[in-house]
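Hi R.,

Here's the chain you asked about this morning:
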Amino acid sequence: MAKGLPPFLPFLYPQQRSASILSGLSDNSGAYHKKIRRGRGPSSGKGKTSGRGQKGQKAHGKVPRGFNGGQTPDEVVHGIRGFENQFSVDMKPLNLVKVQSWVEQGRLDPSKPITVRELVKSRCIHGVQDGVKLLAKGSEKITSPLNIIVSRASASAIAAIEAAGGSVTTRYYTPFAIKRITHGETDPIHSLQSRIDVGGQSETSAYPKRLPDPTGRKDIEYYRDPAHRGYLSYQLDEGQGPSLFFKTPGTGNLVAKRVKKKAASGAENRLW
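And here is the predicted structure, written out as tokens:
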């Protein structure tokens, strides 16, 4: 502190800085690249033609992407091959080895159901689009009984979780529902058609948005299949298949067929 100056006027004190430190400040190597200045003389290496060469369309202007010298474009001659599957879904893969690692670190609670909300909140997964699929990589490391609720699960992952005393339930999600779940606006488990037992009924009325159920045939058939541990499998009777189109052999109305056949045989014996 300078002598003779009052202590309540700090802006009058002379600042002291180390000039050697300030002069040595610089960015890390490769942090940025200098902009190439073109057309600034031959000594720069990019003078005169500025790296474009002499004459021609590329030197005089821009060339459109895919331009082939004026002849018929290749995509017109040969056509555009392949297609984009409009029914494909973008499932986020989730391996069992990562789930077990998160449980051991205390980032996931194995005593509570593990849903999309817990997985995203704990940063176990990120960038979820259409749902989460559980895979069996590292299944030999599963030691905790887990109750996992995801969009889809492989047969090996289901077998590994159930062998450890846990359970797997697959249920339907939409991209908008996943966003609402992560924001705390939708129940991640229960919907109007769900009968998922998680050791206590969730208060769905506490959420402003309702979790949707599937409306497409493929989605309904997937979540009606007990092999997939679908949450709609309770709708099937004993011996009934999950398909909405093909009937399970032996489940048709056999009584009506017998009555119809008997009536037809009686009509043949009539004289008039």
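One quick note: The beta strands are 91-95, 131-135, 147-150, 152-153, 167-170.

Cheers,
M.
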